Amino acid sequence: MQIKKLTEQLSVSPQIALDDIAALKEAGFRSIIVNRPDGEGVDQPTFPEVEAAARKEGLEAVYIPVDSGKVSDESAAAFGAAMAALPKPVLGYCRSGTRTATLWALSEAGARPLPEILERARQAGYDLSGAVKRIANGGRVPVEGDAPYHDIVIVGGGAGGISAAASLLARQSDLDIAIIEPADIHYYQPGWTLVGGGVFDPTYTRRDFATLLPDGVKWIKAAVAAFEPEEHAVILEGCRVVRYGKLIVAPGLKLDWAGIEGLEETIGRNGVTSNYRYDLAPYTWELVHSFRGGKALFTQPPMPIKCAGAPQKAMYLSCDEWRRNGVLENTEVEFLNAGPSLFGVADYVPSLMEYVKAYGIDLSFGHKLVRIDGPAKKAWFETTDAEGNTKIVERDFDMIHVVPPQTAPDFVRVSPLANEAGWLDVDPATLRHAKYPDIYGLGDVAGTSNAKTAAAARKQAPVVAANVLRDMGYGRQTADAIYDGYGSCPLTVERGKVILAEFAYGGRRVPSFPKWFIDDLKPSHMAWLLKERVLPSIYWKAMLKGREPMAKPSFKQPENEAA
């Protein structure tokens, strides 16, 4: 038997034999649901035979036959009713298990998020992408109607989505574009480091989304449930369908707060904070400003994450505040990084290490936060040695700045658009999807090796815009626009000084300014002014408006294109 678990209560398998029922009893199963009609194949016992064998072993059996390819709403409802009534755990089977998995998915529609249903089925080996509309429609066959169509549909109204729309319109003003975005508020997330450092007021980093929507772009205020790329369709929650000529996917990424045991219960109190959330960054500053000594921990999860320098930016600004207030000498600071190094681009590490030494920071690499107890002021980390052996180590803290693990949004991760790691599968240079040529992607969701920063999205948006318009037959462009992997991380090493790290694919340094103005390898007050005063204005007034200073796309293949 090939038994595959969908939930703690239900497992699925292909056709079983009568001799298997005793083994099912031994494995702990208490009920069987048969979804294969009698007489479908010569390899199957009849349901009366299964029922008699099950009764002999003390198991219950239910017969809900479904012809292949004909899963009805009524049979899905019957399956759900059987699951509610039968002793658990239950084994369901048909010829291959697909019909049973489909019945379960439809019966769970509305009770579980669509991405979770698809993911559980996928892990069990069942592709239910053909049933997404029904699952999104509460498990019922949807009534097909005329779905709205747009020449270009953009998923996500963050930095990447708005910038792509604005960049498209700057090149061709009469385009039919729609942005799918459920949120009313748009955030300038790079500013949250400075909120946590007591420099920015949090309201400085937020705007109403409606005020940022480019003129002429339609706003579809809804959440995406799934993609049907073969049908050129996006499925929204509630089973609404939007069709497209070209699709741009830019929904950002998912902060997995639940990925650390105990974090959701304590975040925002008990000395546990994070600059990765708008409402928590002010609490970071509250903790730092009132801190009078003790143990301060700063964590970084496994890559990839958005703004890989942000975890240590929070640490450096905190240490600088404590040094100014005479608190640092009474403080033990530790940076617990799941990765193997301080920063991914080695050229910048020596300058950062000078601050690590000056602040007296202990560095602990290969330490992944897995559990936290806020009231007890304890945190547990999984460590891995050179041989791959793991163990759990405990740390006490008085304050801890936590960065959660991060993944692609669930509706992308379980979709046909994802690569093996769950990120959007796009070409690293053209940002065109690897399988579907009418789909592009940019921003944090992209499965490319560049740093996930707003600076990367600023460079990616014109590339996507130019290539989409070329594909649509606008203009005279014939060559692909190329993204070189540019990203930037203004590392705030103290209040008033920043190391302006700029790099491209392969870890190449690509400084934008001459060394006499800003030396990217050294802390600079000029770079601080760029971070504090210039970059926010560039974001609001240029990047989101389709103006592209220092961001024009290249049409020449870079020498060090990512593999």
From TrEMBL:
Q: Does the keyword Ion transport apply?
A: no
InterPro entries per record: BLH_phosphatase-like, FAD/NAD-bd_sf, FAD/NAD-binding_dom, Prot-tyrosine_phosphatase-like, Sulphide_quinone_reductase
Gene3D superfamilies under this entry?
Answer: FAD/NAD(P)-binding domain, Protein tyrosine phosphatase superfamily
Annotated keywords: Transferase
Q: Does the keyword Transferase apply?
A: yes
Please give the Gene Ontology molecular function terms for this protein: transferase activity
The record places domain Beta-lactamase hydrolase-like protein phosphatase-like at: 3-111
Q: Which domain of life is it from?
A: Bacteria
Q: What Pfam families has UniProt attached to this entry?
A: BLH_phosphatase, Pyr_redox_2
Alphabetized NCBIfam families for the sequence: TIGR01244 family sulfur transferase
What is the protein's given name? TIGR01244 family sulfur transferase
